[in-house]
Amino acid sequence: MAYEIVIGLETHTQLSTQTKIFSGSSTRYGAQPNTQANEVDMALPGTLPVMNRVAVEHAIRLGLAVGATIAPRSIFARKNYFYPDLPKNYQISQYEIPVVLGGSITFFVGDKETTINLTRAHLEEDAGKSLHDNYIGPHGELSTGIDLNRTGTPLLEIVSEPEMRSAAEAVAYAKTLHSLVMWLGICDGNMQEGSFRVDVNVSVRPMGQKEFGTRCEVKNVNSFRFIERAINYEVRRQIELIEDGGKVVQETRLYDADLDETRSMRSKEDANDYRYFPDPDLPPLVIGQDWIDHVQAEMRKEGGLPEELRKNLVEVYGIAPIDAAQLISSRAMATYFLAVVEALESDPADLANVAALRPGRAKLAANWLMGEVSATLNREEKDLAQCPVAAPLLAALLKRILDNTISNKIARDVFAAMWAGEEKGQPDAIIAAKGLTQINDSGAIEAMIDAVLAANATIVAEYRAGKQKGFNSLVGQIMKAAKGKANPQQVNDLLKAKLDQA
Amino acid sequence: MAITEQEVTQIARLARLTLSPGQSLQAQGDLNKILGLIQELQAVDTRGIEPLAHPLSALRDVHLRLREDIVTEISSPERREALMVNAPGKAEGLFLVPKVIE
Amino acid sequence: MSTALHAFPTLASLQAALAQGKLSATELAQDCLRQIQAQQGLNAFVHVDADLSLAQARASDASRAAGISGPLSGIPIAHKDVFVTQGWRSTAGSKMLKNYVSPFDATVVNRLLTAGCVSLGKLNCDEFAMGSGNEHSVFGPAHNPWDLTCVPGGSSGGSAAAVAARLIFASTGTDTGGSVRQPAALCGVSGIKPTYGVVSRYGMIAYGSSLDQAGVMAPAAADLVALLDTISGFDVRDATSAEHCLGVPNAPGRIQSDYNKASAHFDSQALLPLNGLRIGVPSEYFGEGLSSDVGAAIETALSQFEQLGAQRVPISLPRTRLSIPAYYVIAPAEASSNLSRYDGVRYGHRSESYTDLADMTGRSRSEGFGAEVQRRIMVGTYVLSHGYYDAYYLQAQRLRRMIAEDFQAAFTQQCDVIMGPVTPTVAKAIGDNQDDPTADWLADIYTLSLNLAGLPGMSVPCGFGTSAAGKALPIGLQIIGDYFDEGRLLAIAHQYQLATDWHLRCAGQA
Lengths: 502, 102, 510
Description:
The complex is a heterotrimer. Chain A is an alpha+beta fold. In chain A, helix 5 (306-315) crosses helix 6, helix 7 (331-344) crosses helix 8 (354-379) and helix 9 runs antiparallel to helix 10 (408-419). In chain A, helix 3 links the parallel strand 14 (216-221) and strand 15. Chain A has helices at residues 53-65, 167-183, 224-243, 289-301, 306-315, 321-327, 331-344, 354-379, 391-402, 408-419, 427-434, 442-455, 457-464, 470-481, 488-500; strands at residues 3-14, 51-52, 69-70, 73-74, 77-80, 90-93, 100-101, 104-109, 112-125, 129-136, 142-147, 154-160, 196-206, 216-221, 252-256, 261-264, 277-278, 285-286. Chain A is built from 15 helices and 18 strands. Chain A starts with a strand and ends with a helix. By secondary structure, chain B is α+β, with helices and mostly antiparallel strands. Helices cover 35% and strands 9% of the residues of chain B. The radius of gyration of chain B is 23 Å and the shape is flat. The interface between B and C is large, with 53 and 75 residues.
């Protein structure tokens, strides 16, 4: 029996505001327990919630970025259940009418472009933390400690449609969403600190069946690797259960990273009736079109929406869709890329040819950014903001590849030297200092080729007899003789011409 | 539409009220009497009428006022002390509850 | 009763006495403390701290000596025990909060303190403001000064009793379904609940959030103006607090100004001050269930208004009866959620023995909450639960809109104010209606609609009936206004009180 996997993700993103969603307490991470919880956060008698404007604005940003509808009027509702890290024993959330509806996220799984639709995104408050160390209570009982610092931190819960069909898709979706919220500046994406938490809903059904199978929710998976593992485990577990004649029970589970398994959560009871009703302490949230327009304008000023930018890169710059997706994975990278291309196009001499030259230049810039630059950053454990090679200087280096002054291979050496700060990081100075200018003179190259051919008569004979693999060896020797500086294309063409000249 | 014993148990559980069997029975009787009163609502034709959640919205458009994202709380051990002064169980700056197994 | 308050029975006379140095705030406070002590049998006060009160009084005297004083400087008041106060405990009449001390003051408390009032402590009330006789209090029932075997009304029973007994000059209360107007009526004092949103709910222990509103009680309407005006005003800490009242900022001064304007207008009409005022009288308020003594007193009062020049207009508020089930769905629903925070974790009663967390919470709540509160929590939980939400909660909220619209129809087309009884009968005996959970609820029929609609309303003394023991028991006239019309309501009531003296009567002197 072939099974289809059905996955939906609910992501809780902690919004990067200064204060909590309903009180003026700080949201700074890492404070002493209960020093960042005021009377409202602690739900002392007589306290009331007051809404944080920036939390709403962050929700608008997300909505615009995913092409969703921003609800002109949304309602805060109370989700009623008892838990010690939830001081009011209800969570203020949104139920029937959330602030963001619909939208979609596009990303690549391998080289396949995938779009996943979002159901909704809504604002709610985070709960506190339970510390399960063995504290001793007032009657000598083993106790759990409750820290309410995190209580009231604004959360944006982003819910996807159950459209993912593999763990790989789910991980790619999660990573894309993760980059997006950081791009938008609405979440710091720090998964260790709990800023970005994923609940995975997994079910299986026989291939071709229309009805969904019973789903299980795996809560609070806080790394991409764990998302993949949790899904794989769940799928295996559910299929095994079904094939053994059992039924999947709808329940909430936790992923145990040490044992690489999911298990049922004991404390969450069956069918908890949350008794949602509109919070009488909070009138409806009204978002006017002018506010939405204002946020959109601000986002444009900051460099545009990632989705728009991605389309732009494909349509205007001719970048392959899969590369465009990577280039917009962070605002920094997109900005850097555009700066490089802008510098490449800034020479007044070839303004007339800009359009024609653009795709080639853009591709080169993209390859370098995703390749050499990223690799070096990773190795040096730096991020793009700390890159010692500024965009205009990288552009200057790329110009020398484009005008055949140096080959791509030599350029990597120059880049390393720029990174190290030699010659004040100026590519031309480095090329001159190291004498790396490419040999483009066909006469000189031919001379080198002749010399190598003369020294390798056997290989030449074999090549002419049909054994082509000696070609690379010859190229290698020629390049060695040229100290790597011969124009590779010319070497290739000329060598081939001479060999075929039998 | 009377309330059953089971429903009383369910309600008590949702509301975290521990009722003895006698109290449960009393509650069932009370709730049924109360239901009899609030059942009167059922007879009213309210088609086309929107619920009124915030009374002033009968008068005008009421919408949520937003607060600026500026820290207004000073955090300090003294402040924490004052806020936690009524806690029945506390240690090391934490509220204590009987151990929770997740 | 307090000697001083007896000698200076109006705010104006008391202000003058203090200003002229006839007595100091400290002497006044000491006088009140003595009387509170002497009349402990009323059980109106639940927390008294002489040191705290006298400190406030001394501060008031010092300010006055330094040339700083206002209309409420030195005036002795007290707060219903659902307003949180630093210093005095705040218990909401419940075992759940019996030892709770708040680290902050309610906005209402703060404003009166800043205005120079001297607080004599916290007043008894029904537990978490749920009740109409002050019988559901962990401190035991409060008593009606007019007949100690009778209830003072509720839930703000202590607030009304203390003013009626002249232990203090004025008190704060809260009104969710009539809990300021009804005790005011049963104790023969003047009380007012303003439009929803006029007074901040920050620091008011929540019962029914969309219905709760703070109110004040004092002997006369004219006394209430400065008090209500002072506690009114937009508060950033309450998202349901109104910023504007029909274009005018919601701030202290508005009500005083409206009152002055209306009063000036009435005064200018000489012998028929209320000429032009149309008083709507709902037929539904005079049906079965209204006792004859109350009916008669209201009738007399309405005639009095006619003599002052007002015109009676018969109106209909067809959903009056339905306000009862609507209220007793919405209020318990909100209460069931508002009271969830009382779990023995961060404050409040925690059971002495328990096996685990769920057990601790369950026991703490069952031990901490009285029977009425537990009943309402269960009703509220039920009407919000899956499968019943639409049929009960949403249905009640729809009815609520219809009721609000009924009032609007009356106010826009037929009348300026609406009048009628506050209660169907005079105060009942303490202990009556024990077996029937809904018996007391039915008596709320005249007051509930206002809270559902969010309208302002007041009660002024308008006559007497008799208790079973043959004692005179006060009757209150309800005056209902349109949104934000509290200033004018007070002016209308004042005109009535210029022509009558019911509000001047004191228990023992009927």
